From TrEMBL, chain A:
This is Glutamyl-tRNA(Gln) amidotransferase subunit A, mitochondrial. The active site is at residues 63, 140, 164. One of its GO terms (molecular function) is ATP binding. Residues 596-642 are annotated as: Disordered. Keywords: ATP-binding, Ligase, Mitochondrion, Nucleotide-binding, Protein biosynthesis. Its main location: mitochondrion. It is found in: Mitochondrion. Subunit of the heterotrimeric GatCAB amidotransferase (AdT) complex, composed of A, B and C subunits. Belongs to the amidase family. GatA subfamily. It catalyses: L-glutamyl-tRNA(Gln) + L-glutamine + ATP + H2O = L-glutaminyl-tRNA(Gln) + L-glutamate + ADP + phosphate + H(+). The keyword Nucleotide-binding applies. It comes from Pleomassaria siparia CBS 279.74. Coiled coil: none annotated. GO terms for biological process: glutaminyl-tRNAGln biosynthesis via transamidation; mitochondrial translation.
UniProtKB/TrEMBL annotation, chain B:
Its main location: mitochondrion. InterPro entries: Asn/Gln-tRNA_amidoTrfase_suB/E, Asn/Gln-tRNA_Trfase_suB/E_cat, Asn/Gln_amidotransferase, Asn/Gln_tRNA_amidoTrase-B-like, GatB, GatB_Yqey_C_2, Gln-tRNA_amidoTrfase_suB_CS, Gln_synth/guanido_kin_cat_dom. This is Glutamyl-tRNA(Gln) amidotransferase subunit B, mitochondrial. Belongs to the GatB/GatE family. GatB subfamily. Its EC number is 6.3.5.-. GO terms for cellular component: glutamyl-tRNA(Gln) amidotransferase complex; mitochondrion. One of its GO terms (molecular function) is glutaminyl-tRNA synthase (glutamine-hydrolyzing) activity. Residues 33-92 are annotated as: Disordered. SMART domains: GatB_Yqey. Keywords: ATP-binding, Ligase, Mitochondrion, Nucleotide-binding, Protein biosynthesis. Allows the formation of correctly charged Gln-tRNA(Gln) through the transamidation of misacylated Glu-tRNA(Gln) in the mitochondria. The reaction takes place in the presence of glutamine and ATP through an activated gamma-phospho-Glu-tRNA(Gln). It catalyses: L-glutamyl-tRNA(Gln) + L-glutamine + ATP + H2O = L-glutaminyl-tRNA(Gln) + L-glutamate + ADP + phosphate + H(+).
Length: 642, 616
């Protein structure tokens, strides 16, 4: 198929799938077609393989937090509404230089904060595989994933801070790759959490991802975190790709809340890899269980700092009228009005964990956990980490890559996802966050789920359900991670004969055309018994519960508490603390006692007075709830303060 | 002053109640220095031109005056105090005996670099607003810092001159606070790991005005650390309520020098600031004097009872224990302000403590000319800066070879310089003249002085009698005679080339011209005459022609006859000073280069039958 034909298909899909809300800005159709046509006429490469891997004339979508001069760059935030960056991000420039066509900007969670692409001024991304269905496309790169999945573009760039490329890839049945931190330039990528932010690539097959990755994997002097050329030359994998690899099964990812369908898909994927001749080995990554908590300390902390620049003074939107007071900053109103609820929540979280009173217990602890997570990974990989390890460090047995699910559940309903509280939403990132904290390359590939786990309705409609499987490798082993992902995807799709990158087919397999199948992968010998035994360890009853978050805080004057006292509790303590101490009671007991006394008095008065003047105060509200918790009858009567 | 062009440009907006979006738009459309295309600017030595900006507190040019004033004041005080014991003065003395002051100083100085700390935009002073700004300097989304390692060089020179240990590894942190001149919402500074630690400076008697140190012997003051950080943008107030922001200064590299709280006297505090300023300038690390915002100081002031046991209730700052509660006075922009603010704050705290109050840890402000510090914000209003290591900036690793090279090539320290100038064997200047020479015109005057002395030394290489006097004579001419001419003009070493001045001095030292002729010659050269001194003297016959005694007597006789009233005043009323008038008359009447004051007065005194001149 010619590039022009592909482009036209993509553009047709863009019109067909507007209900997905994947794109927020689209490029000019005529211009795109003209560029694709020109690429057809002047194929830059002669060989068929090179032509297939060339980006020339390909339609690539860009997540809206990556700066482009031709489209606005809003990061889906009201505060950057209509903001047009004066410069192109390095990755965008690299794509253009390779002849790729930037087809538009994709929807996302505001500043990348979210797991379902719902926190957006453009409205949520809706994954709709058949009329009437509204599923979550994952987040925060949900727009990019949905655009790729529905054939609206050939590939897309997203950003992955804690799984923002891999999670939507898993939910939308596409391939999502987060390279090693520092390989792809972040210049022009709007910061969420600098030490974790990575540009990621979404496409329908691993080869496409790889060709985009090869184009972008270049040192950029503009990005201070870009890996310098001297270090780049040291990266790579000493083993040849076509050899027997050791695949690690991280048992700690077998958590009790893991959807059984996903667990079965995981086991199936391991079987596939074993069939390819690889060895399977169970490994333990115990500290990764704390990775999620650490991530949700570190990322908001950096976010609270990075987002301080959005004040509407130099660019972006500004609240009408006078902002601020003579004694305060002049953008309180602007920030309050134009930053979304989730963003405000994370800014507040971050500001708290960095504050003088909390930094030791939160930020510093989380950094230590981060280091432990990285050490954990280093301890299981056969290759040493080229950034931290002694180059002469000889490793014993270890694994080459790890295989685990990308998300603990299958694609959730959007309504369900939106109804989740913030903490439950954060749980979606439990498997993606560890690799982010350690800066490791990780890719999510769609793996078909067992027949019995599939929804009969979807099967009837010819929609293929998948679970994302994540391949994680040692730092700099991006090539190996991509190779294992390719083998896995090929094994999964061996039976489903359609070309993964055909724009006339969605990622979930509808409108499947009769396209020639993929070349068969040469199989190795059968795997060992050890591998089977290791897979058996992934049974549901062996699952680990995630550690309960222990909420212990040290509060001056209170000692260690389960949670920080509310202002109402503080007021109570201030008022009754000393009296309660005299009686040898806790404040709660004292308050309850007082309430009982009052109630007795009030019931007396009630006989005379009509309960009509309801004027509850903070203390009263507290008392009422206290009584409720004690299971006593509440008396909803006003009482005067003495 | 810097705002003038902008002020007129934005005059139309000055009445707006808040920054309107059109202003913003205009600011947005201003050209930005792109990060990819470096602006090439020569490495400048950005210096203050004090003469063009005469301000009340211009510290460098008025130093001589300051010395004079201080000397005068001292004299006056010593005259007055025994006669009129001032009640409040003795009160104060009694208090100061009871209470000990402790001061720690933080000095911010703009580094003398070509580029900003984290972008390739050029640094600038007084340029058109918002013309030297890279994307990162205005915190554009997606822009990242690019540490300019060249900025380390002046910073390292400064730290070495302050005798600090250069840290092999240092790192940058973000200090968060909201203000419109802080575009990213945080300042990048070195909080956890500064690049230089544990230095010290030594104050010698010559570091004090009036040459009198409040303590005997040299005073050592520890430097806790030196750190690098970004400067903020500049806010220009447009009354009534518009604020315009110029990002040219934003991210200009600064160093912050933090002293230990080891200063117990306001004069020492001021001398300490001046000394650090001198050191930074001597090693060519900073841009300007305080008056241009190049140097700003914050002081921490506390008092404690001298008799109180030091362990009790004492607070500790930077390892110095047993101190009283301190307050911080922010943003002092001159040395005079440092001294006055410390005095005012010390007196306020003592007053407070003596009346039974307690000092609160708070931030205070000081405006020049006021008598007391003003509370800015208390502890409850304190900003939690939420210091966080900057995740984008890699730690700075400084190689030992760089440090050694910079240490070896460091210019001579000001103390060494002064010692050399004062040394009778070499230059023999007074310490007052030496320190003046060092401070003037960023050392240019000193270089000029060295040039003059070198030429003279070559001229008088065989003259053992004149040779030891050269330094002092040259100093006199460079500072007093030439300095006097430059009073209202900015210094330029080419106006009177050093060869010309040394030529004049040489004639004078050989007694071939009179002092008066020499001064007239110098004035002529200053006014733009480029003729060689030799030629002027030859052409206009200015050589000293000694008159005979008869010629002097005749001249004097004539004068005395012309002015009998003056003679009467001298002889009868004993107004002996008037004899000088006659000397002057004789000199102006005689041909140039003939009459000299010494012999003239001698003859006059003889004729008037006065006592002969006292021998000097």
């Amino acid at each position: 198929m010619s590039l022009l034909k592909h482009a036209q298909e993509h553009i047709a899909n863009q019109a067909r799938f507007t209900n997905l809300n994947a794109f927020v800005y689209l490029g000019d159709r005529a211009l795109i077609e003209a560029t694709a046509k020109a690429a057809d006429i002047n194929p830059p490469d002669e060989t068929p393989l090179a032509a297939r891997l060339s980006l020339a004339g390909r339609l690539i979508a860009i997540k809206d937090n990556i700066c482009t001069t031709e489209f606005p760059t809003t990061a889906s935030s009201a505060i950057l509404k209509d903001f047009k960056s004066p410069y192109d991000a390095t990755v965008v420039k690299q794509l253009r230089d390779a002849g790729a066509i930037i087809t538009g900007k994709t929807n996302m969670d505001e500043f990348g904060m979210g797991s379902h692409s719902t926190h957006s001024i453009f409205g949520p991304v809706r994954l709709s595989r058949f009329p009437g269905e509204i599923m979550s496309a994952g987040g925060s790169s949900g727009g990019s994933a949905a655009a790729v999945a529905s054939g609206q573009c050939w590939a897309a760039l997203g950003t992955d801070t804690g799984g923002s490329v891999r999670l939507p890839a898993a939910y939308t049945n596409v391939v999502g790759f987060k390279p090693s931190y520092g390989l792809l330039s972040r210049w022009g990528v709007i910061d969420y959490a600098n030490s974790l932010d990575t540009v990621g690539i979404l496409a329908r097959d691993v080869e496409s991802v790889e060709s985009v990755f090869d184009q972008l994997n270049v040192y950029d002097p503009q990005d201070p975190t870009s890996l310098p050329p001297t270090k780049r030359s040291q990266l790579g994998f000493s083993k040849k790709v076509n050899t027997r690899l050791t695949i690690g099964i991280p048992l700690d990812y077998n958590i009790t809340t893991l959807d059984p369908a996903v667990r079965r898909a995981w086991v199936q994927s391991l079987h596939y890899l074993q069939d390819c001749g690889h060895l399977l080995k169970a490994v333990e990554l115990s500290t990764t269980r704390h990775a999620l908590s650490a991530y949700y300390i570190l990322a908001p902390a950096e976010a609270s700092s990075n987002l301080a620049k959005y004040d509407g003074v130099r660019y972006g939107k500004r609240a009408d009228g006078i902002d601020g007071t003579p004694s305060s900053v002049l953008f309180a109103k602007t920030r309050g009005q134009f930053l979304g609820a989730e963003v405000r929540r994370r800014i507040l979280l971050g500001a708290f964990t960095l504050s003088a009173q909390a930094i030791d217990n939160y930020f510093i602890q989380a950094q230590k956990v981060r280091r432990l997570v990285a050490n954990d990974f280093n301890s299981v990989f056969a290759e040493p980490n080229p950034l931290t390890a002694d180059p002469f460090d000889v490793r014993g047995v270890g694994v080459d890559v790890l295989l685990c699910p990308t998300a603990p559940s299958l694609t959730p309903q959007l309504a369900e996802a939106m109804a989740q509280g913030p903490l439950d939403t954060y749980m979606n990132d439990v498997f993606t966050v560890p690799a982010s904290l350690a800066g490791l390359p990780a890719i999510s590939v769609p793996a078909s789920i067992a027949e019995e786990d599939q929804s009969p309705k979807l099967r009837e409609l010819g929609i293929k359900e998948t679970a994302g499987m994540q391949v994680i490798g040692q730092y700099g082993n991006d090539g190996l991670v991509l190779e294992v992902a390719r083998q896995l995807l090929q094994a999964v799709y061996e039976k489903d004969m359609y070309h993964r990158s055909d724009p006339s087919v969605t990622a979930w397999g509808t409108n499947c055309a009769d396209t020639p199948g993929l070349t068969k992968y040469t199989k190795y010998l059968k795997g060992s018994k050890v591998s089977y035994r290791n897979i058996m360890r992934l049974r549901e009853e062996k699952a680990f519960p995630l550690p309960k978050v222990l909420k212990k805080v040290k509060v001056p004057g209170y000692g260690i508490l389960d949670k920080y006292p509310t202002s109402a509790e503080k007021r109570l303590r201030k008022r009754y603390g000393s009296k309660a101490q005299e009686l040898g009671l806790t404040v709660d007991e004292y308050v309850a006692k007082k309430a009982r006394e009052k109630r007795a008095k009030v019931t007396e008065e009630q006989k005379v007075k009509i309960a009509g003047e309801k004027e509850e105060k903070g203390e009263d509200a507290y008392e009422v709830s206290e009584e409720k918790s004690e299971g006593q009858a509440t008396v909803d009567a006003p009482h005067q303060e003495k | 002053m810097l705002a003038l062009p902008k002020r007129s440009a934005f005059a139309a907006f000055s009445k707006r109640p808040y920054i309107c979006s059109s202003c913003l738009h205009r600011a947005r459309s201003l050209p930005l220095a792109s990060g990819t295309h470096p602006i090439s600017t020569p490495n400048r030595s950005l210096q203050t031109d004090a003469q063009t900006s005469p301000t009340e507190n211009s510290d460098t040019t008025s130093f001589r005056k300051l010395l004079k004033d201080a000397a005068k004041k001292k004299k006056k005080e010593s005259r007055e105090s025994p006669l009129l014991p001032n009640q409040s003065q003795t009160d104060k003395d009694r208090r100061l005996e009871k209470w000990e002051l402790t001061v720690g100083i933080e000095i911010h100085a703009e580094l003398n670099t070509a580029r900003k700390l984290f972008s390739r935009a050029a640094t600038s002073i007084g340029e058109i607003p918002n013309t030297h700004v890279a994307l990162f300097d205005t915190a554009f989304p997606g822009s990242q810092p690019q540490f300019q390692k060249e900025t380390l060089i002046p910073a390292l020179r400064a730290a070495l001159a302050l005798n600090c240990d250069i840290q092999e590894k240092s790192s940058f942190d973000r200090k968060h606070y909201f203000y419109q001149d802080q575009p990213s919402g945080y300042q990048i500074t070195q909080y956890y790991e500064p690049f230089a630690k544990d230095g010290h400076i030594t104050l010698y008697p010559h570091d004090f005005p009036a040459g009198v140190s409040p303590e005997d012997g040299p005073i050592n003051i520890g430097i806790k650390q030196v750190q690098m950080e970004q400067d903020t943008a500049k806010t220009v107030h447009e009354p009534p309520s518009t604020h315009l922001i110029d990002f040219n200064r934003n991210s200009h590299p600064l160093i912050e020098v933090i002293t230990l709280p080891q200063i117990h006297n306001p004069t020492i505090a001021a001398a300490c600031v001046r000394k650090i300023q001198t050191i930074l300038r001597t090693v060519n690390a900073v841009t300007a004097g305080m008056e241009m915002g190049g140097l700003r100081a914050d002081v921490n002031v506390s008092v404690r009872e001298r008799t109180a046991p030091s362990t009790e209730h004492g607070l500790s700052y930077y390892g110095v224990t047993g101190l009283g509660q301190r307050t911080e006075i922010k943003n002092l922009t001159s040395i005079k302000a440092v001294e006055e603010a410390v005095i005012a704050e010390r007196d306020r705290q003592i007053e407070l403590l003596e009346s039974g109050g307690i000092v609160e840890g708070e931030t205070r402000g000081w405006t020049l000319g006021s008598t007391t510090t003003k509370r800015l914000r208390g502890k409850e209003g304190e900003v939690d800066y939420r210091y966080m290591p900057d995740p984008d900036i890699a730690p700075v690793i400084i190689g030992e070879d760089v440090v050694n090279h910079l240490r070896d090539t460091l210019p001579r320290s000001s103390d060494d310089c002064i010692n050399m100038l004062v040394d009778g064997q070499v230059y023999g200047l007074t310490s007052k003249d030496a320190s003046t020479l060092l401070l003037l015109d960023d050392g240019d005057r000193l270089d000029y002085y060295f040039d003059v002395v070198e030429i003279l030394k070559a001229t008088f290489v065989d003259n053992a009698e004149v040779l030891p006097r050269l330094g002092k004579v040259a100093g006199n001419w460079v500072l007093m005679e030439l300095g006097g001419l430059f009073k209202n003009d900015s210094w330029s070493e080419t106006r009177v080339p050093s060869s010309q001045l040394s030529s004049i001095i040489a004639y004078l030292l050989r007694k071939e011209i009179t002092g008066r002729t020499a001064k007239l010659l110098l004035a002529r050269l200053f006014e733009g005459d480029i003729t060689l001194v030799d030629e002027i003297i030859a052409r206009e016959d200015l050589l000293r022609r000694p008159l005979s005694r008869e010629e002097y007597t005749n001249m004097a006789q004539r004068l005395i006859e012309e002015k009998p009233d003056m003679v009467a005043a001298i002889v009868e009323k004993g107004q002996h000073q008037k004899v000088k008038w006659f000397v002057g008359q004789m000199m102006s009447r005689g041909a140039e280069g003939t009459v000299e004051p010494g012999p003239a007065e001698e003859v006059l005194r003889e004729l008037l039958q006065m006592a002969p001149m006292e021998q000097k």
